[in-house]
């Protein structure tokens, strides 16, 4: 019997845990090293599109996540006054891409992924670095405070400030500031009933989405110099910037406490890496292709990376060939969308809004074209689980859905 192959995963976030679960499922001995004292992520939610849900189906987690998440219903795009610029049709998304958009707290997803691993596989409070990426003739080496580990595969899922990326590609410039900062909060908002929406103002956006547990996930972004902070607290900053926008924003801000609000500047990788691997080390998620959140695909692409990496674990050149062109194209599209929704000039904003409203009225499904080639992606391996409706039944399959969910 051949010896069990060893994999070390640096980073216990969504991409790292998905990769660990996928590799464990394929018989690898997996060790996850997480720098933080626990796997509990910073409080925010994540939207999962049909492409990521199909990737989670590969490790048997897709249906569980669909059951735990809020299925994003009809909503759309608004102006600060509350006028609808464009409406979204949840059923149209499901028909077109073979599944729903869902929203859940990141902690819920992390808990589900971690449960698919042996408890002994995860070591928290453990900083790690690659000391030798290895090659075809020798294993990679990972340094920890407790000594070195050897592995046939190292998965670098250490995030946007990835130290491993710098070890593998020391000449790469790294990330650049995207030009805006974000705020996020997940809170109960008594009596709040509203449709999911994103609101675009001059150089500012806001999004509000109900979660399945009754809380509200809200996020905001604004064009600001890098490194800025509110003179008092970030809730007060949100009130100054968004306090006079349409409902439910005033109710959400009234329910928030200063400690509920997280603020982070947005950075992305503008110059793609030459590869997503070197030696026996593979990069996944933000470590490989950090992108602005404007397409909602950052976490989704990390999940895709993870299952594709497990499929190509013995041929990392094939992993790079499968992932580098796709993630580069999606990252560039996210940058283009950021330029559109972060416009600051009032004349340009007025033209943009008029065009969005006209397109939405004349061809309401045209907005879905922007997600073709993204949300309809399929993983390279089976199984694909057909999505369920909220009542627990499977929707009637259309010819397109049948192609998405058949086993190849």
Explain this structure:
This protein has 408 residues and is an alpha/beta fold. The protein is built from 13 helices and 19 strands. The protein has helices at 14-25, 50-58, 62-68, 90-97, 106-114, 163-168, 234-242, 249-255, 286-289, 298-311, 316-341, 346-362, 399-405; strands at 6-10, 29-33, 45-48, 70-71, 75-78, 84-88, 102-105, 122-123, 129-132, 140-144, 147-151, 153-156, 176-188, 197-201, 204-210, 215-223, 262-268, 277-278, 281-283. The chain is globular and about 65 Å long. Mean pLDDT is 92; it is low at 385-390 and 392-408.
Give unreliable regions as ranges: 385-390, 392-408
Beta-strand percent range: 15-25%
Measured distance between first and last alpha carbons = 29 Å
Number of H- or I-type helical stretches: 13
- Helix % is 25-40%
What's the overall geometry?
A: globular
Query: How do the strands line up in the largest sheet?
Result: 6-5-14-15-16-13-17
């Amino acid at each position: 019997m051949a010896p069990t192959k060893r994999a070390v995963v640096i980073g216990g976030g969504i991409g790292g845990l998905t990769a660990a679960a996928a590799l464990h499922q394929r018989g690898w001995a997996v060790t996850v090293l997480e720098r933080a004292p626990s796997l509990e992520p910073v409080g925010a939610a994540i939207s999962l599109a049909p492409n990521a849900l199909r990737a989670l189906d590969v490790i048997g987690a897709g249906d569980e996540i669909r059951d735990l998440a809020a299925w994003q219903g009809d909503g759309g795009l608004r102006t600060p006054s509350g006028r609808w610029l464009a409406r979204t049709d949840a059923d149209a998304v499901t028909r077109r891409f073979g599944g729903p958009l869902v929203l859940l707290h990141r902690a819920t997803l992390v808990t589900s992924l971690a449960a698919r691993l042996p408890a002994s596989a995860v070591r928290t409070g453990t900083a790690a670095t690659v000391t030798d990426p290895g090659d075809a003739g020798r294993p990679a080496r990972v340094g920890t405070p407790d000594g070195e580990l050897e592995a046939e595969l190292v998965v670098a899922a250490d995030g946007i400030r990835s130290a491993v990326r710098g070890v593998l590609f020391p000449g790469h410039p790294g990330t650049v500031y995207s030009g805006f900062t974000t705020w996020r909060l997940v809170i109960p908002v008594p009596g709040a009933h509203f449709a999911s929406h994103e609101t675009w103002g001059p150089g500012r956006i806001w999004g509000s989405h109900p979660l399945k547990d009754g809380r509200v996930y809200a996020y905001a972004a604004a064009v600001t110099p890098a490194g800025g902070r509110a003179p008092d607290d970030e809730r007060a900053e949100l009130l100054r910037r968004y306090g006079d926008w349409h409902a439910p924003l005033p109710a959400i801000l009234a329910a928030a406490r200063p400690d509920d609000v997280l603020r982070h500047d947005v950075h992305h990788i503008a110059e793609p890496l030459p590869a997503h691997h070197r030696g026996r080390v593979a990069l996944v998620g933000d470590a490989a292709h950090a992108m602005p959140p404007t397409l909602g695909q950052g976490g989704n692409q990390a999940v895709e990376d993870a299952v594709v990496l497990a499929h190509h674990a013995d041929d990392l050149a094939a992993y790079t060939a499968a992932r580098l062109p796709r993630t580069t194209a999606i990252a560039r599209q996210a940058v283009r969308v950021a330029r559109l929704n972060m416009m600051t000039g009032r004349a340009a904003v007025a033209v943009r809004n008029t065009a969005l409203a006209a397109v939405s009225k004349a061809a309401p499904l045209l907005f879905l074209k922007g997600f073709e080639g993204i949300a309809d992606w399929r993983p390279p391996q089976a199984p694909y689980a057909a999505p369920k409706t909220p009542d627990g039944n499977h929707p009637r399959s259309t010819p397109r859905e049948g192609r998405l969910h058949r086993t190849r």
